[in-house]
Amino acid sequence: MLSQKSRHALHAMLFLARRGASATAAEIAQSESIPRKFLEQILSQLRMRGLVVGKRGPSGGYVLSRDPAQISFAEVLRAIDGPLALAPCASRTEYRPCPDCRSVEECEIRPVLIAVRDATAARLEGTSLAQAVASRLPEFPL
Questions:
Q1: For this protein, what is any one GO molecular function term (predicted)?
Q2: Is residue 50 over pLDDT 90?
Q3: What is the pLDDT averaged over residues 82-92?
Q4: Which tens digit of pLDDT belongs to each residue from 102-121?
Q5: Reported CATH class of domain 4-64
Q6: Res 56: pLDDT
Q7: Which burial class, exposed, middle or buried, applies to 71 when counting CB atoms under 10 A from its CB (0-12, 13-18, 19+)?
Q8: How far apart are CA 84 and CA 125, in angstroms?
């Protein structure tokens, strides 16, 4: 399930993609109905992960670190919530056996979770902020 924090992060990133210029946390918060303090924490995480750049001064604020066509939904979600997998045993980046796992090799759940992760990752990695702003989502087979 998508966390509230990730949902807010996506809305903030899409706001910056639409704007094409710097925006303050207050402007983003007001436009996207995100509590400002919560948004500041999110923007800090996005900045640390290299997805936004903070600028100081009178024309300061936040801007995307790259062209919106080069930033995927997957990058934003991973920056906020970590791996896309539903369970640690299905993660490519942070694999570990589930705490109650008897045998990773014999698990009947893991192959399904890996398939879900692959399908989810394909959609999220294949969708850029620019595509979402333009409402031109890529076609994916079901």
A1: DNA-binding transcription factor activity
A2: yes
A3: 89
A4: 888 888 989 999 999 999 99
A5: mainly alpha
A6: 84
A7: buried
A8: 11
- Count other C-beta atoms under 10 Å from residue 93's C-beta: 9
Q: Which amino acid, one-letter code, is at 103? A: S
Pick the more confident residue, 102 or 10: 10
List every span in the chain annotated with CATH 1.10.10.10: 4-64
Spatial distance between the Cα atoms of 40 and 26, rounded to a whole number of angstroms: 9
The H or E element that residue 44 is part of is helix 36-48
13: exposed, middle or buried (C-beta count within 10 Å: 0-12, 13-18, 19+)?
A: buried
Model confidence at 60: pLDDT above 90: no
Amino acid present at 105 = E
Query: On the CB side of 3, how many CA atoms lie within 13 Å of its CA?
Result: 14
Q: What is the DSSP string of 77-136?
A: HHHHH--S-SSGGG-SSS----TT-S-TTT-SSHHHHHHHHHHHHHHHHT-BHHHHHTT-
